[in-house]
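Task: sequence design from structure.
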């Protein structure tokens, strides 16, 4: 059934036919758990389960988090178990302390399975961040014994479909004989990087700064992999092209600044600009300044910079550097690092 027909049927409490996509896979491959002792498919029998695959620097996941967080809080008392499966994209996201810090900063209080080996990811045959799966409680209820596991009944990849996802969640509760919840759908007020993208004015795409996946690099001569090199930026950048200035080492995953006062420039078209970055050495900080068309960003500064464009890199995470309040046009973004020792991973936009 197409999503719009499914939404219409579910909204009117009509009979909804959700496919059986397979039994709930094992969580035994988790390398650690946060906010909970280890959970098993067996221990979850009889519960509706929401599984959310994420990695903490993913902008697409960050924009879905307000809904997952609201659903976890609203439906917990009705037996819904929310589980976040953290499957890291970048090497620093394997670091448990980094994930623990992100869990605290993002107010995630539901159980988190650390999937550093991608064992759970493969058990679900998953391919995306974020990915949402809903599992029914009928493995226990339908068969009146504890030999059957719950079944995956619904999935959604990426952002959006929040109304449909919550209605299906409610449908699985009703199907399991659980009532008493408020069927009015959640509303969220998402701040900072968690706010929904301005899709109508978004013309810049995710751009990796490491050599393995990057595109549209515009410094003369291209990249010199894994060697210190003095880069220069061209006088003008085309839309969605970027460049380095200063002495950098371009690696496969990230690009590292060797000497102070290095710059990255990017011509973009979006309301928001983010950069995943961090200090090369734990416990150190790197100061930076941001410019928009050669001037401090002022009212267009993101949550991680002040109006003069000043900020500090202290952790390995996503930093929101620009949020434009008015008309969106092609703009030149520049970030100058006043100290050496920063690594830049990926630009994202919203």
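Answer:
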């Amino acid at each position: 059934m197409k999503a719009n027909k499914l939404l219409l049927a579910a909204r009117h409490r009509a009979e909804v036919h959700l496919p059986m996509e397979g039994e709930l896979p094992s969580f035994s491959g988790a390398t650690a758990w946060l906010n909970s002792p280890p959970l098993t498919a067996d221990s979850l029998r009889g519960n509706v389960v929401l599984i959310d695959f994420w990695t903490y620097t993913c902008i697409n996941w960050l924009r879905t988090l307000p809904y997952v967080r609201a659903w976890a809080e609203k439906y917990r008392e009705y037996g819904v178990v929310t589980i976040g499966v953290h499957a890291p994209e970048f090497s620093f996201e394997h670091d448990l302390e980094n994930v623990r810090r992100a869990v605290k900063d993002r107010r995630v209080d539901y159980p988190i399975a650390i999937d550093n080996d991608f064992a759970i990811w493969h058990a679900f045959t998953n391919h995306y961040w974020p990915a949402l799966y809903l599992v029914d409680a009928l493995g226990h209820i339908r068969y009146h014994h504890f030999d059957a596991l719950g079944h995956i009944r619904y999935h959604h990849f990426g952002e959006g479909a929040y109304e449909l996802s919550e209605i299906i969640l409610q449908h699985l509760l009703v199907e399991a004989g659980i009532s008493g919840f408020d069927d009015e759908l959640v509303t969220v007020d998402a701040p900072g990087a968690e706010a929904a993208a301005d899709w109508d004015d978004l013309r810049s795409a995710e751009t990796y700064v490491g050599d393995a996946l990057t595109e549209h690099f515009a410094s003369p001569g291209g990249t010199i992999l894994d060697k210190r090199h003095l880069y220069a930026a061209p006088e003008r950048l085309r839309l969605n092209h970027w460049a380095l200035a200063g002495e950098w080492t371009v690696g496969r995953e990230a690009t590292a600044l060797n000497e102070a006062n290095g710059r990255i420039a990017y011509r973009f078209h979006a309301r928001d600009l983010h950069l995943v970055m961090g200090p090369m050495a734990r416990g150190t900080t790197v100061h930076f300044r941001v410019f928009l068309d050669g001037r401090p960003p002022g009212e267009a500064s993101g949550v991680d910079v002040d109006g003069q464009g000043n900020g500090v890199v202290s952790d390995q995470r996503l930093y929101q550097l620009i949020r434009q309040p008015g008309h969106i046009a092609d703009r030149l973004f520049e970030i100058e690092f006043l100290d050496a020792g920063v690594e830049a991973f990926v630009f994202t936009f919203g």
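The chain has two domains: 3-194, 199-349.
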